[in-house]
Structure formats: C-alpha cells, structure tokens
Amino acid sequence: MTMTDRSDAMAELDSFFRAARTSAPVPSADLTARILADAAAAQPRARTQEATARRAWGKRWRGLRRLYLPALGGPGVIAGLAGAIVAGAWIGFLQPAPLASLASRVTGQTAMLEQIDLIPTLDSYLTTDTGE
Amino acid sequence: MPYDAMTEAPDDALLALYANGDGAAARVLTERLAPRVLRFAARMLSDPAEAEDVTQEALLRLWRIAPDWRRDEAQVSTWLYRVARNLCTDRLRRKRPLGLDAAPEVEDDRPGAVARLQAAERAQALDRALARLPDRQREAVVLRHIEGLSNPEIAAVMEISVEAVESLTARGKRALAADLAGRREELGYDDDGPI
C-alpha cells in the first residue's frame, strides 16, 4: 500500500466515522423513564441545616468517645466511676442520719460539715508580745 | 436552580444538586449523559437491548455515588465511560456479541432515502468491522473517533497511558481501513465520488 493509498483509505474511514456519528442510537422513552425512576429511588433526602448540625455534633461526640473511652477502661468502668461520684456527692452533701451517727462512732467526732473550719484562723500564731 | 440554567451547568455541579435533593438535575444529567453511554455501549456490545441495560446500570451507579462525589476526583463523563466500559467488558466475557449482521435491513422509500440508506449502510458496515476488532482497539477507536474524547480522557477511561491509547487507535484504524477497503463495491460508495 502506497502513502497515497493509505491516506485515501484513512479519508474514507473518516466518512464512515461521520456516518456512524449521525446514525447513532438514542435512548428510548422507556429507557429514559427507567433511568429517572432509578434516580428518584436512589436520591438522598434533602439535608436541612439543622440535620447537618446534628450530624456534625454526633460525629464529634463519637470521635471523642472512640478516643478516650478505651483509655479510661471501657464503658463499664466509666459507668462505675460515674455511679461512685454521684453516690459520694449525695452522701457528702445530704449527710443521711444513719451514716452520720456511724461516722461519729467510728471517728469519735460529732462535727457536721458546716462546722468544719476549712481555713483555720492564724490569729493564735500572729499574736505579738507587747511586753506588758 | 431553574431548569434552563441547569442545561448550562457542569456535570459535577448537577450531580451535587441531585445529591441535595434536586430531581430536575437528574433529568438534565440523563439527557446529557445517557445518549453518550448508550452509543458507546451499543458499539461495544453490538446488542441494543444489552446496551440499554448497561446504560441504565451505569447511570444507577452514578446516582448512588452522587452523595460521596468529590469534584477533584475525575470528570463525571470520564468516570461514567469507565463504568460503562467495565460493564461492557463483563458482558463480553460472558458472551461474545451476536454482531449486527442479525440486525434488520434498513428500509426507507421517502425522498432522500438513498443518501440516508447509504449513510446507514456505512454506519452498519463500520459497526460490523468494529465488532471484528480486538476489544481494546474497538474501545479506543470508538471513544476517539465516534465519541470525540481526547487521548488523555481515553487514557483515564481505559486506565492506560496516552501512548498506549495512540498505539491502540492507530492499529484499530489500520485494521478498519483494511477491512472496509474490500467492501467498496458492496456499499456503493464509488458511485458518489471521493468521500
């Protein structure tokens, strides 16, 4: 095949490509309907700003939980710890009578919480001898 | 966004609108992309019914990926051609194409019918010759010379280098030209001068 023959053959081929482009199949109405039905079925629901914010907070909380929970010993340990904290606070502030009397017998002290001087006065150490 | 404005919007913007609940965006994307996928699949499979199934399946995958689509990832059309190509390849592996020889003959007696008939016969002859090419050469030639993609786009679709695309299209064109050269008289394209 000479150079001219080859270029003639390629020029002819281009005419076949042009014919193929003009006689290409187009989607039928039925195919278009099927595609649009798929699109409607697969379409995500519209996202509101509120839902997006809720999802963002949920995501952050899940991230923190994933990060710190294993380090503290897991959910069981955290639940126990939280229970102990609540019980301690309840006992400390309400001072139920049976527990207060038991504590008095054990320690020999009868002082109530409000009577404890957490910041003792330093007056006795700060007195000065005036020489009188 | 109004429907008219959507027809000017790029594919990825329409996909984002669809993912945010805009149903009209799906219609515009379908009108724009389905014909291209169907043309490509029809020439790859030589079976109109299978080509329609591939088109529907490729678009369904697009709808499903829409919420996670990243703009910097790829062009929507390139991604879609790649999905269609993989679907066609799967079907070709399962079953070789029947060929367009089984397609009904074109019959048309309206004015200008001869010219249309001749063009249709040429398109059919090309489709038959394409069906005889190796799969990868056929993909490259169809994407380059019928779908009008650039070589880098075809390289992205076929996941090969640009040089490999050039080689495949060159070999494919040479084989097509040789195949069609023997059919000049049969197709009657000597009658209307140089083409």
Automatic annotation (TrEMBL), chain A:
Residue spans crossing the bilayer: 67-93
Per UniProt, which keywords does this protein have?
Membrane, Transmembrane, Transmembrane helix
For this entry, the protein name equals Dihydroorotate dehydrogenase
Species of origin: Allgaiera indica
TrEMBL record, chain B:
One of this protein's GO BP terms? DNA-templated transcription initiation
Which segments constitute the RNA polymerase sigma-70 region domain? 30-96
Entry GO MF terms:
DNA binding; sigma factor activity
Which parts of the sequence belong to the RNA polymerase sigma factor 70 region 4 type domain? 124-176
Q: What is this protein called?
A: RNA polymerase sigma subunit ECF family protein
Q: Which residues form a coiled coil?
A: none
Q: Which family does it belong to?
A: Belongs to the sigma-70 factor family. ECF subfamily.
Q: Which Gene3D superfamilies match?
A: 1.10.1740.10, Winged helix-like DNA-binding domain superfamily/Winged helix DNA-binding domain
* Disulfide bond among keywords: no
Fetch the InterPro entries from UniProt: RNA_pol_sigma-70-like, RNA_pol_sigma-70_dom, RNA_pol_sigma70_r2, RNA_pol_sigma70_r4_t2, RNA_pol_sigma_r2, RNA_pol_sigma_r3/r4-like, WH-like_DNA-bd_sf
UniProt KW keywords: DNA-binding, Sigma factor, Transcription, Transcription regulation
Instruction: Give the organism, scientific name.
Output: Allgaiera indica
Does the keyword field hold Coiled coil?
A: no
